[in-house]
Amino acid sequence: MLNKNQLNEIKSLQDICENHDEIKLKLNWDMLVHRGSLKDDYFYYDEDQLAGYLALYGFGNQYELCGMVHPLNRKRGIFYQIFSEALESLKNRDASSLLINVPGTSQSGKKFASSVGAAYDFTEHEMKWDPNSHLSLPENIVIRKMREEDIPFCIKLDIECFGTSHSDAESRMKQISKETGQRSLMIEVGGKAVGKIRVQRMQGQSFIYGFAVDPSFQGKGIGQKALSLTVREESKWTKDIFLDVAATNSNALKLYEKSGFKTIYSQDYYRYNI
Hints:
- Helix 5 packs across helix 6.
- This protein is 34% helix and 34% strand.
- The protein has helices at 4-21, 29-32, 78-91, 107-115, 151-162, 166-178, 222-234, 250-258; strands at residues 41-46, 49-59, 62-69, 97-103, 119-129, 141-145, 182-189, 192-202, 205-213, 241-246, 261-272.
- Strands 1-2-3-4-11-5-10-9-8-7-6 form an eleven-stranded mixed β-sheet, sandwiched between helices.
């Protein structure tokens, strides 16, 4: 578990790097503040000042990493050092894959990924809702809280819609149940659960994750209606509503754009063979 001082150091370094490089780092703060017993955080200090940091995020046997080095401490091999430490840890965890997260405009991040032999995999768009956009009033769509009996169906959706393995989908469901400020919701049509959507509220903002509709019900406008209903509810609480979508999913991207979302920045993912 990270202590308060460590969290403050990470946030300070993040602000410095983002301002200097004009980027947006995806550090998954909801996970950082709820770390478990595994060593998922790697620090490099220079004269008692945090100069480098790397975070691992586990989703079952799949892992992602994101990190940064202070602008004044670069070209010293700092990130290579903490990256090597993280790899040693993963070798003892039976990790099946590792994705390196790089801000879309970070040239140094892309250069690092290339230098360690990681191959580009996909791009994820961070989108923000435009409060001036028109929201349709969906009919015959109900959004309700997820219940325990919905878990098997949600795991099925993760497998079929996101290509997740069964074990990783189960692990993700367990992790979600521990996170605070989040709501796991079900999409119903005619009393039947046909999809899911997760909303997390943090620091006056709402984030939409894990949005999926059963393949047998896709192409009927259910996704857009469910998203509009969710956004309308969240807009009562905040105007800052965000979501992520992979560029490979063009249909989802169009759906979000029709619902008033616009891309504000992107994150590139590079696959590293462990």
